[in-house]
Amino acid sequence: MSEPRQSAWLNGAHLLALWAFALVQPLFDLLGRNADFFVARGSTSGDIVAFALAVTLLPPALLLGIELLVGLVSPAVRDWVHLALVALLVALVFVGFAKKAVDASSAVLFPVSLAVGIGAAAWYREEAVVRRFATVLAAAPALFVFLFLFTSPVQKLVTGGEARAESARVDGKVPVIMVSFDEFPTTSLLRPDGTIDAQRYPNFARFARQAVWFRNTTTVADGTRWATPIVISGQLPERDALPTFQDYSQNLFTALGGGYRLHVTEPVTRLCPKELCADTGPRQSEAAETADEGDADTRDESFGERMESLVSDVSIVSAHLMLPDDLRERLPSVSEQLGDFAAEGKRKAPAALPRPARRPRPGRERRAAERRLTELIPTAKEAEQVAPAFPGFISGIRPYSGRGKPPLYFLHVLLPHHPWRLLPSGRVYGESVPPNPGLRDNVWNADEQAVLQGWQRHLLQVGYVDRALGQLMARLRATGLWDRSLVVLAADHGVAFNPSSSRRTVTARSVGSIAPVPFFVKLPGARAGRVVEHHVETIDVLPTIADALDFELPERADGSSALADDFRGHEGVRVWSTTSAAHFERRQYSWSHFAARRAEVVARQATLFGTGARNPGLLWAVGPHRELVGRPVAVAARGAGVSRSRVRYDRPEELEAWTPAARWTPSHVTGVVDGMTGGRNLAIAVNGRIRAVARTYSFVGDARFSFMVPEYAFRAGYNDVRVFEVRRVGRRLQLVSLRG
Fold it and tell me: Which residue from 625, 635, 636 is spatially nearest to 735, judged by alpha carbons?
């Protein structure tokens, strides 16, 4: 670097400017357009300001600190370290631009970007005008912070905003229990005749027998940021609205807040103002049953815990912004949930157990292995972390004596929303790599078999939701609330399973999967239910609740009561496509088009997966050559050969020692086939009988497999598991055993 040597503060200013262009600006641009990222984690205005300053200042300060430490040893070496850092940051800036302009792998982008960075550093060293320009750019970080905090949608969270809502006058003492499900299409519950599959989902069928079922309910938004507040507020979506009280000031909580004790669980929204909802979860004790105030929340995360979670997720978002697409494949997705990205695929694996060369002898040795494994893989507590809100919500419901304010128990539960990890029994199973083969950034690829397994896992998780509903109904009966209460079940939007299509964005093809959502109302004292065929929208949920409780909303809602005698329903199906605030448009479909698409989904679902009364085993027979499922290996594998390919299981320990008393199950068998290329058809046999079929898929160069095996296929202790390649030889199938 030319003499005199550049001062440390100028070095720091230049690093600050380059860092801001490399990461700060693209990160603030992304998060500024997706402010619900902060809403979902309950970030305060102080959290957001601290985050903005930290992400802007700390990394360049750390780099400058490294320079200064080196300078204590050798000022000349410090200059070279500074130039290396300049080259690195310029390379990162170039990668960010280049990955948008050209479709190139990291093997191309990284060397080219590094060459650009080195050239820029050399220019910076030789030309004073370049260094002066870098000094001018040092003002940019302050501008980026200002724009992020005060001009983007994040501004609403930083500055707050005046919002007031008037409580409704409610004279009755009717307890209210409401569960709002997430990503739950009505089609998942149905048989082709339009009735609920009572064998597969008995508790929804039982609930419907005492409730008003609005069978033709549709959502008006396809994204949770808008769809969930609509259910609670009865308000049509607006582009810039955040899922907060400030933007939905009239909602279920503000309307009932003056006359009810509120027990509200909101994992991704903040619609209940703090003065009404000090408690963010279900009530934990029976004390102060007649108190006028909400319960104190003793479980709020500290500032340090909130920032730790924020840093973890932002680091993954940053990696997505900076890395080329081929390396992003190895990262957890950041577009399929609002937070805890690092948890995707991070299921706690058991510590390695010695793999037996033969089946273990029965007795003490096997029982010891079972105990060790049971201690190491998911406990009951860990199982509940997959669906953390439901068990706590149910156990928190208490009897109501009729004295004082009646309770409102509200739960927005992120089920049956993926990640799909639960079986109908409530047991947890392991994930594959990636966690949802065929799905990336909310878009299904062209691998139909991967898409069908995603649909299968969704339906299995719907089975768990049915089980949890049965537990909720039992709790309400046990506490004496069932007959006295208004019980409401609703959902925000559905989900589609079509190859080469979005999982969530509504289209003319997917409207039959994404638009229909469940809506049930069990009225106080009801003994018999009925089905309402009028077309209801999710904006009608809150007015319907108000009608059922016989009170007037303080302000007019966009919807109407579906219980009213003069309600005739809506004409067409309108859904705002809301993948982001930038992509926000209303899409309209005729009722006949929607009904036809919905019928197609239900018919295809029954063909693929059967129903509880017809071919129920088809739910487990998903994949190519599913006629093999259920056959004994001795029959199906006649004339089978042995392949040179070798199977490596992701979790071999699960197959070596299992007990039916465990809260986990080895049902999801995943792994890699070494020495295999291309899509190959596979079958898996457990304890001598073929239990599932699948097709390999490619992930970062490996041929991987993912089987869903029914729980009843496994026995206590060791399980004999074999994987076969399925080949067609003439008119018959041949099974070729893969080495394990």
Answer: 636
**pLDDT recorded at residue 433:** 85
Q: How far apart are the first and last CA of the chain?
A: 60
d(CA 204, CA 277): 29
Where exactly are the structural domains of the chain?
Answer: 8-159, 176-302+387-615, 626-739
Predicted local distance difference test score (pLDDT) of residue 686: 95
What whole-number percentage of the chain has pLDDT above 90? 60
Report residue 577: phi and psi, to 5°. Answer: -80, 115
CA 699 – CA 704 distance, rounded (Å): 7
Residues of the chain with pLDDT under 50: 2, 280-299, 345-385
Contacts of 62 (CB under 8 A, 6+ apart): none
Convert 528-590 into a string of H (helix), E (strand) and C (coil). Answer: CCEEEEEEEEHHHHHHHHHHHHCCCCCCCCCCCCCCCCCCCCCCCEEEEECCCCCCCEEEEEC
Residues, the chain, total?
740
For 176-302+387-615, CATH number out of 3.10.100.10, 3.40.50.2300, 3.30.390.50, 3.40.720.10 equals: 3.40.720.10
Dist. CA 529–CA 273, nearest whole Å: 34
Burial 667-687 (b: 16+ CB within 10 A, else e): bbbbbbbeebeeebbbbbbbe
Q: What is the dihedral of CA 314, 316, 318, 320, to 10 degrees?
A: -140
The edge-to-edge listing of strands for the beta sheet with 261-265 is 261-265, 407-416, 176-182, 486-491, 519-522, 212-218, 530-537
Distance CA 135, CA 128 (A): 11
Prior bond to 406 cis, omega within 30?
no
For 287, counting Cβ atoms within 10 Å of its Cβ (0-12 exposed, 13-18 middle, 19+ buried), the class is exposed
Q: What is the pLDDT of residue 384?
A: 43
Nearest of 707, 708, 620, 717 to residue 662 by alpha carbon: 717
Q: Are 245 and 164 a contacting pair, CB within 8 Å?
A: no
Q: Look-up: residue for tokens 């690829």?
A: 445
Q: Which of helix, strand or coil describes residue 724?
A: strand
pLDDT at residue 366, as a whole number? 42
Asked if 702 and 729 touch (Cβ cutoff 8 Å), the reply is no
What is residue 394's predicted lDDT score, i.e. its pLDDT?
94
Q: How far apart are CA 95 and CA 314, in angstroms?
A: 19
pTM for the full predicted model:
0.85
Cα three-residue angle 51-54-55, rounded to 5 degrees: 85
Are 6 and 83 in contact, with CB atoms under 8 Å apart?
A: no
Cis peptide bond N-terminal to 4, omega within 30: yes
Residues 332 and 344: beta-carbon distance below 8 Å? yes
* The predicted structure's pLDDT at residue 640: 65
Cα maximum dimension of the chain? 90
Residue 29 makes CB contacts below 8 A (sequence gap 6+) with none
- Count Cβ neighbours within 10 Å for each residue of 9-45 and write b for 16 or more, e otherwise: eebbbbbbbbbbbbbbbbbbebbbebbbbbbbbbbee
| Residue 136 confidence (pLDDT) | 94
d(CA 411, CA 253) in angstroms, rounded, equals 12
Which amino acid appears at position 258 of this protein? Answer: G
Residue 1 · residue 75 · CB < 8 Å: no
Who contacts 54 (Cβ-Cβ below 8 Å, separation ≥6)? Answer: none
